[in-house]
Amino acid sequence: MSDWLLNLPVWAMALFILAITYAAAGGIFAVVTALAKEERARAFKSVSGSLLSPLGTIFGLLAAFSVVQVWSDLDHARVAVNREASAIRMTMLLAASFPGEPETQIRDVLRRHIDEVVSTEWPIMAQQSASLKVAPPILAEALKLVLSLATQTEGQIAAQREVVTQLENAADARRERLILSRSSVNWVKWVCLLAQAGCVLVAIAIVHSDNRAGAAIAMWIFATGVAVSVLLIASHDRPFSGEISVKPDPLLQVRPD
């Protein structure tokens, strides 16, 4: 699916998809109606209306499988962002075990990490161009800083160990959201879904070729259903792109002042 379409507001995306779907349905209706004459008309009437039920069922299954994928990806992306924010929040709480300059340095590093994520990584993820080859330098800096701290009490030793674990959790959650940012419905699924929708529209037009008003009504109803299905999938297609996408709000909420 085209990037510019997926980045439209939902209302604009809906209008565009409805317009394209209705235009395609109208074109199919016009062609079938023009062909439904004499011998071809009798051939069209021999097509059984029972054909519509399995065709519609197949379209529904294809749409359902696609919807399940995009909703699952979106949910996993939200979980990854929340997990990263929770790990950062816990790190800040544990940083209080090292009062003074060490705590200030840890909070500063975490603030810079969040700023980097929001200003640089999020736009890259929206473009589906994020790469795991680039390691998180600021998180690595935070890890080195924590490991270099001199511990003086048993509490600080335990806190240092837990901070390292939380930073590793944050890095793991970051990797997960970068992977999910490249997820989308592939072109094969889109082609199959739209081809099946076209088959159903053609079948409706042929079955009702002797009743133009009935064919137009049935095709309009099904075309609306197709447009709604495509809109539902397209608006959720990429977890970090478009109006309905995962935002960095949980990270901003835990950003140190």
Brief overview, please?
This protein has 257 residues and is mainly α. The chain is built from 10 helices and no strands.
Keywords:
257 residues, mainly alpha, 10 helices
Strand coverage percent: under 5%
Number of spatially distinct domains: 1
Distance between the termini: 40 Å
The secondary-structure class comes to: mainly alpha
Largest sheet: none
State Rg: 27 Å
H/E series, N to C?
HHHHHHHHHH
* Residue runs with pLDDT of under 50 for 5 or more positions: none
The averaged pLDDT comes out at 91
Instruction: Count up the helices.
Output: 10
By DSSP, the count of extended strands is 0
What helical percentage do the residues reach? Answer: over 70%
Shape: rod-shaped
